[in-house]
Every structure is written in structure tokens, then in C-alpha cells.
Amino acid sequence: MDKNITSQLKEKYEAIDQNLGVHLEGLLYSKPITYWDYIHTDALLNLQIQRTTLPDEMVFIGYHQINELIFKMILWEIKQVAECNTLNAVFFEDKIMRISRYFDMLTTSFNIMREGMDVEQYNKFRHTLTPASGFQSAQYRLIEFASTELINLIDIRFRETIDRNTPFEHALEHLYWQAAGKDYKTGKKSILLINFENRYKEEFITFMKVYQTKNLWSRFKELPKADQKDKDLVKAMRHLDYTVNIKWVMAHYNAAKHYILGKDGDGEATGGSNWQKYMLPKYQKRIFFPDLWTEKEKETWGTDI
Ligand code: HEM
Predict the structure, then answer these.
(1) CB of 243 closer than 6 A to ligand 1?
(2) Could you tell me which residues come within 8 angstroms of residue 88 by beta carbon, excluding any fewer than 6 positions away?
(3) How far, in whole angstroms, is CA 242 from its chain's centroid?
(4) Based on the number of CB atoms within 10 Å of its own CB, is 284 exposed (0-12), middle (13-18) or buried (19 or more)?
(5) 252: closest CA among 69, 110, 104?
(6) Is 89 in contact with 81 (CB distance < 8 Å)?
(7) Percent of the chain whose predicted confidence (pLDDT) is above 70
(8) Which of the chain's ends, N or C, has fewer CB atoms near its CB within 10 Å?
(9) Is the CB of 283 within 6 Å of ligand 1?
(10) pTM metric for this prediction
């Protein structure tokens, strides 16, 4: 064995008061690694459990799970920007491009949802899913909290007037997505929203606090002024904003329209929202990096597609 490796191993184990000989002996009996042990394929491939006998429900479950895995990888990249002590334009752009590639993939693959299921089957199995909805994807919300300042996620109707230093709990009550399940006149929330908040509200508040100053937009504004003007970085940031908040949203909306307003659909969403208005970018006006867009671009947000 290479002497250098032996002495490095010795050093490593001495530092934690461990006997290298014992660890080397352990190696004698350790199992060789296989692909399936490492990737946990057996566990992964046993997580697609249908609620009905309709074959296309498998497409629905599989594609949602793929989305959740990709969301996890996106959060992984954002975390590295959030926690980096030596940020610069090159590192920032590299990470933004990685995140963009994931969102490009989610956007271009959305046809798997739109075309990949039989409309008649969808409108049968979806009845077993009420009152659940992709709306309840917690990772999707975490990506938003980690991408921008809370003010940019506040319902557009309150964005101008809400106190920017409002407590997190109050901010959460005014996030744009409350509109999917809250009657603002009575304050009454739908079961979709109640279930979601019962499960995740505390986690969201903690995450919101952590990312208040570490989100992508805040970190971008910490870069030296010259880096903030870096053409490639600005282009990458705009591409990401557009892909997440217009392209993905519209691909999703068009899939919803295809199934819910198709000949077997009844117009009702599983989560029960007024989805035809709620889901459109021109109403939500969710923009992660607002200063990178002109006033005109912001005004006409989501009307070009
Ligand atoms: C046939 C496929 C799909 C249909 C018909 C559909 C339909 C809907 C509808 C109508 C809503 C509004 C809330 C409600 O009342 O339920 C919604 C929200 C949502 N769905 Fe989907 N969806 C589909 C696929 C997906 C996929 C694959 C994902 C990926 C995880 C997803 C994630 C979301 C998210 C994150 C929201 C909340 C969006 C927001 O607050 O603006 N959906 N969906």
C-alpha cells in the first residue's frame, strides 16, 4: 500500500482516538458495494403506490415524485449559494445555471403530464385524490422562500401596503398562495390550506427566518456592484425568473386546462381553488428578482405567452 495513504489513515484515526488496525480488519468483512445498494433502487421503486386500478395514475404519481426529487436538487444548489462565504459572480452564475437546467427540464418535460395520461382516466382517478393538490408541495414553497425576499411573494393586492418588517406569521397569512384557499372577507380557509398549514406552517416559519437574508436575491444584492452588472449573471438570473415564474407556471396551467376543462372534466380542481384565475402569472405577479426587469416588463408580466 502507498506509504502516504497508510500514514494519512493513521493520522485520521489517531485524531479521533481510534485504532487503525481495527478499522482495516473491518474492511476484510465489509460487503462490496453494488449499484442497487448505493442508489437504493429497491426502496425508490417501491414508492409508487396507486389508489386506483387505472394505469395512467402511475404516470401521475411517477412524474410528481420526479418533480419532488428535482426540487430537492434545486434546494441543494440554492443552499450552497446561501451558505457561501466567498461569493463572486462566477460561482453565483454557475449555481444559477445548475438551478436553471433543472427548471428547464421540469418545464420542457411537462408534456409528460399534459399528453401522457388519458383524460378520461385522469378524471376518474382524480376523484380519489380530493382534497389533495400539488399546491401542497412543501418543497415548491421552500424554493420560493429560498429564492427571493418575502415581499415578492406577498399577494400583489397587499404588496404595496404591507409593512416590510411584519412578523413572519403575518407575512405567511398574506402570501400569494393563500388566495388559493382563503376567503379574504371571512378569513375562512379551505381544507386544502388547513391541512397544508397544520403539517408545514412551523417548518415554513423557521425556513423563512433562515432565508430572510440568505435567499438568492438578497445574496445577489450583496455582490460587489461590478458583479451585479455582470451581463452573463444577469442574463442567467432573468432566465431563471422567467422559467420558474412564467414558463413552468404556464406549462402547469395548460396541463390543468387540458384535463379539468377537457371533455370529461367538470372544471373543478382537486384542491378546490378558483384555479383559472389563481394560477396565471399575470395575476400572481410573482417575480423573484424584480430589479432585473424594466417597469414595462413587470407591468406586462406573463402576458407574452
Ligand atoms: C395533470 C396534472 C396537473 C393538474 C391538472 C394540476 C392542477 C392544479 C391545480 C388546479 C392547482 C390549483 C390548486 C387546486 O385547486 O388544486 C394546482 C396547484 C399546484 N400544483 Fe398542480 N396540477 C398538475 C400537475 C402538477 C405537477 C406535476 C406538479 C409538480 C409538483 C404540480 C404542482 C403544483 C403546485 C406547486 C401548485 C401550487 C401553484 C401555485 O400556488 O401557484 N402540479 N395544480
Answers:
(1) no
(2) 223, 227
(3) 15
(4) buried
(5) 110
(6) no
(7) 100
(8) N
(9) no
(10) 0.95
Which residue ranges form the domains of the chain, and what is each CATH number? 3-30 (no CATH), 57-299 (1.20.58)
177 lines ligand 1 (CB under 6 A): yes
Cβ atoms of residues 230 and 94 within 8 Å = no
Ramachandran class of 187: left when φ > 0, alpha when ψ lies in -120 to 50, beta otherwise: left
What's at 140, amino acid-wise?
Y
Per-residue pLDDT reduced to its tens digit, 45-101:
999 999 999 999 999 999 999 999 999 999 999 999 999 999 999 999 999 999 999
Which of 252, 280, 286 for a ligand 1 pocket mutation test, highest count of atoms within 8 Å of Cβ? 252
Atom nearest to 273 CA in ligand 1: 15
Q: How far is 12 from 221, CA to CA, in rounded Å? A: 41
Say if residue 167 is preceded by a cis peptide, omega within 30 of 0: no
